[in-house]
Amino acid sequence: MNRTEDTTGLFRLGVLVSGSGSNLQSIIDSLHEGGSGIEVALVISDNLQAYGLKRATIAGIPTAVFPLGDFADRAAHDLAMADELDRHGVDLVVLAGYMLLVTPAFLKRFPRRVINLHPSLLPAFPGDTPIEDTMDYGARVTGVTVHFVDEGTDTGPIILQEAVEIKYNDTVDSLRERIHTVEHRLLPRAIELIAGGRLRFDEDNPRRVLA
Ligand code: GRF
Fold it and tell me: Which domains does the chain possess?
C-alpha cells in the first residue's frame, strides 16, 4: 500500500462523520494527539449539526460541510468532497459514522484508500440498523468490523474484527455502548496498520487482507 507523504512527513487522514463523532474523538486522542505520525487533516460532514464537526474544531482540525441538498446529484456531491480531500493531501479516507453511501466515482479517486467502521460482525447484519437487527434476530454474539469500502453496502475486504457478547439483559443502548468501546480501540489500530504499510492484499484472493 502506497503512502503519500506531505512535507511534514505525517500520514494524513480525511474523516467523514454524520453525527456524534465519538470514533473521530478516539482517532484524535490516540493518533492525532498521540505522537503517532498520523494526523487528521480534514473532517467532512454532510450534516451541519454533526457534533463531530465541533470535536474537530476544538482540536484545531479544519472542517468542511457538504449537505447533499446543495448539489445536483450524489456524483457531484462526492466529486466536490473528493476535490476537498485532495486539496488537503489526504492519504486515507475514514468513514466514521458517515451515513451516506459513497459513489463509485469517489472510490475511484481513492483506490483501496477508503475504510469504514461497522457495528456488527460482517457479513452478518449489514445496513443502517445493525445493532437493532442483531438484537431482533436474537443473536448471542455480535461485534465490530473495520473494512475497506467497495461498491457494495458493507461488503468490502475486512481489515479487523472483534466479537462482542450479547447479554440476556442487554438493551440496544447498553449493547451500543459496549460496541463503541471496542470501536474506539479497533478503528485507530486499523489506521495504524495502514499508515505503517503493514497490510497487503492476498494476490490469489484480494478479499483477504493480510496484516
Ligand atoms: C458507529 O457505531 C459506527 O460503527 C457506525 O456509526 C456509529 C458512529 O458513532 N457506522 P460515532 O458518531 O463515531 O459516535
Answer: 11-111 (3.40.50.170), 116-203+207-211 (3.40.50.170)
pLDDT tens for 14-70 read 999 999 999 999 999 999 999 999 999 999 999 999 999 999 999 999 999 999 999
20 lines ligand 1 (CB under 6 A): yes
- What grid cell was written down for 115? 475504510
- Distance, CA of 190 to CA of 158 (rounded, Å): 10
Q: Which residues does residue 145 pair with via DSSP β-bridges, in sequence order? A: 118, 161
Cβ pair 153, 145 in contact under 8 A: no
| Cα(156)–Cα(116) distance, integer angstroms | 9
- For residue 97, the CA-to-ligand 1 centroid distance in Å is 4
Q: Hey, what's the cell of 29?
A: 486522542
